[in-house]
Amino acid sequence: xxxxxxxxxxxxxxxGCSQEDxxxxxxxxxxxxxxxxxxxxxxxxxxxxxVITNASDYRVxxxxxxxxxxxxxxxxxxPEIGFDTAFFVGKYTQVPGCSARxxxxxxxxxxxxxxxxxxxxxxxxxxxxxxxAFNCAIIPKQSENYTVQMEVEYYQE
Length: 157
Hints:
Elements: H1 2-21, E1 26-28, E2 31-33, E3 49-52, H2 55-65, E4 86-96, E5 99-109, E6 114-124, E7 130-140, E8 147-156
Parallel strand pairs: 6-8
Antiparallel strand pairs: 1-5, 2-7, 3-4, 4-7, 5-6
């Protein structure tokens, strides 16, 4: 019976690893940016995952998070995007620590016509503080019909 369980476990491990290795992911050059927190508030975006594929939706999104705490906010804008060749993604994250840093990557899988937007949220220190961010990126389009998966990995330093 033990041999049967061992054989079953080995098969699961082999097939699980071979499936993961067969994923054909292409790393993409993305443009990440931080929102100007004086003029754009992402408090409303708590737990949100956003994918925007056209200019009109991007402007509606920009207007929905704009705040007018300073006069300069009247003319502040999010970065321009050429939606013929790229799209916008963003995901709200929180990580504990005295401060935080974020690293983002994007991958494209041509076999499934899908993107993976991967964020590493790194909390630094042991302060009782929760750091929030809306991690944004402009990703180059590889096709017209696609899905986007967002994934966050949390680390503490």
